[in-house]
């Protein structure tokens, strides 16, 4: 039972047949729920149901035997109490509209997608609010490489929602000995963290390909956190969520692991591979490629200082060599380490005062 007096969801639907949707579907099935997974590929659906494998996205993993997959959206969604949506951001709204006839006000809807919609700059839970009647909307976000989670590596995530029933339902449906689900009431911050960190994983992958070592990586990750927080605060979000699993936690894993698709895109570009070729050979979604463009444009429009994101944007889309990715950061005015203790403006003012004093003493 949870705080609304309802039992934990016993019927769960998962939209998306990729690596993360499949990993979560299998965990929920392991916990005893009836789990149905929707995907477009009929052969893959048959393979999951009959042979308990998803050979395209999680080739070495044995899935729970009770998991059923189908291309029929109605069958998957009928009487589902909790729906997990793991569809790349570029197709998220279309799939939600397809699902809408079977979505109800009392269902829990959780997005696991870490991206931003191109035409509206909406986060995925904002699309769920717009497109569905559900009163229980949340996001699942954290340091969760799908293949590690599916292989039962001890992992933690965050369910973020302002609705207590949504948080409790997600925790009851997914927590197990190797997956711990922490709660947050900052849906927007957790979701923004998940989308923004992909940008910097591309940057760190690129730096690694150029032979940069631990000093560089540590600097990039820490300054990435400063940029992400600055961007979030400008959009009205709290920076505090970035101190948790959905912020710095996810940033660390994505910037550290060769399993990250975004890191791999950056690594390939750093080795001189053209972006289109890197994306084509990945064969899976790397959300950061689109996110860096959207965030750079928004930051330019609103005057938000984001030297790493904009340096990366120019490398990916304007033919600037990867070796110049960090130059605008390295050459910019002296600045503050933690802006919430010493503001950027105050740190820069120290230098203006110093140079004025120098000029006066010379004259
Ligand atoms: N894979 C991971 O480690 C994690 C992924 N995520 C997020 O989950 C989201 C989904 O990612 P993955 O499962 O990893 O993706 P994936 O690249 O493994 O698979 C994407 C899935 O979406 C399907 N798809 C693509 N276009 C579609 C469309 N128009 N209609 C219906 N289905 C479509 C594909 O067929 C595939 O089943 C992404 O936003 C990603 O950032 C979040 C945490 C971890
Ligand atoms: O979000 C992820 C880990 O938390 C997965 O990252 P990639 O999409 O870069 O593989």
Quickly describe the structure.
The chain is α/β, with parallel strands linked by helices.
As a percent range, the share of helical residues equals: 40-55%
- Specify the CATH homologous superfamily of the largest domain: NAD(P)-binding Rossmann-like Domain
What structural category characterises the helix and strand content?
alpha/beta
In CATH terms, what is the fold-level topology of the largest domain?
Rossmann fold
Poorly predicted runs of 5 or more residues? none
Strand order, sheet with most strands: 3-2-1-4-5-6-7-8
Our Rg estimate from Cα atoms comes to 22 Å
Give the terminus-to-terminus CA distance: 78 Å
- Bound molecule kinds, no repeats: 1,4-dihydronicotinamide adenine dinucleotide, 1,3-dihydroxyacetonephosphate
Q: Give the helices and strands as they follow along the chain.
A: EHEHEHEHEHEHEHEHHHHHHHHH
3D shape? globular
Strands, total number: 8
Taking all residues together, what is the mean pLDDT?
94
Task: Report the major sheet.
Answer: 8 strands, mixed
Q: Which class of the largest domain in CATH terms?
A: Alpha Beta
Count of helical stretches? 16
Which percent range describes the beta-strand content? Answer: 5-15%
Our count of domains comes out at 2
Multimer state: single chain
- For the record, the CATH architecture of the largest domain stands as 3-Layer(aba) Sandwich
Biased composition (Basic and acidic residues): 346-363
Domain Glycerol-3-phosphate dehydrogenase NAD-dependent N-terminal: 12-163
Binding site for NADPH: 19-20, 40, 57, 114, 146, 261, 285, 287
Active site: 197
């Amino acid at each position: 039972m949870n705080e609304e007096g309802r039992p934990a969801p016993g019927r769960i639907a998962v939209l998306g047949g990729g690596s993360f949707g499949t990993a979560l579907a299998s965990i929920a099935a392991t916990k005893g729920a009836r789990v149905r997974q929707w995907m477009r590929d009929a052969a893959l659906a048959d393979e999951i149901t009959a042979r308990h494998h998803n050979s395209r996205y999680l080739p070495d993993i044995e899935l729970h035997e009770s998991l059923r997959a189908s291309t029929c959206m109605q069958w998957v969604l009928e009487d589902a109490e909790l729906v997990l949506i793991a569809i790349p951001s570029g197709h998220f709204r279309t799939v939600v509209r397809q699902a809408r006839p079977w979505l109800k006000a009392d269902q829990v809807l959780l997005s696991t997608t870490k991206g931003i919609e191109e035409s509206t700059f909406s986060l995925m839970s904002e699309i769920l609010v717009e497109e569905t009647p559900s009163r229980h909307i949340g996001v699942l976000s954290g340091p969760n490489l799908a293949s590690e989670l599916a292989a039962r590596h001890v992992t933690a995530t965050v369910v973020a929602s302002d609705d207590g029933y949504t948080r409790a339902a997600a925790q009851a449906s997914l927590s197990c000995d190797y997956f711990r689900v922490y709660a947050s009431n900052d849906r927007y911050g957790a979701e923004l963290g998940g989308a923004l960190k992909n940008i910097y994983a591309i940057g760190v992958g690129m730096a690694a390909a150029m032979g940069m070592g631990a000093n560089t990586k540590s600097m990039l990750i820490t300054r990435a956190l400063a940029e992400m927080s600055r961007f979030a605060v400008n959009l009205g979000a709290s920076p505090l969520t970035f101190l948790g699993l959905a912020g710095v936690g996810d940033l660390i894993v994505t910037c550290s692991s060769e399993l990250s698709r975004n890191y791999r895109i950056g690594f390939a570009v750093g080795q001189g591979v053209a972006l289109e070729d890197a994306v084509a050979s990945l064969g899976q979604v790397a959300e950061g490629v689109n996110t860096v463009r959207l965030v750079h444009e928004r930051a330019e429009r609103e005057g938000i200082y984001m030297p790493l994101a904009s340096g990366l944007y120019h490398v990916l889309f304007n033919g600037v060599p990867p070796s110049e990715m960090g130059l605008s950061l390295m050459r910019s005015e002296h600045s503050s380490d933690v802006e919430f203790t010493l503001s950027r403006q105050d740190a820069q003012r120290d230098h203006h005062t110093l140079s004025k004093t120098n000029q006066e003493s010379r004259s």
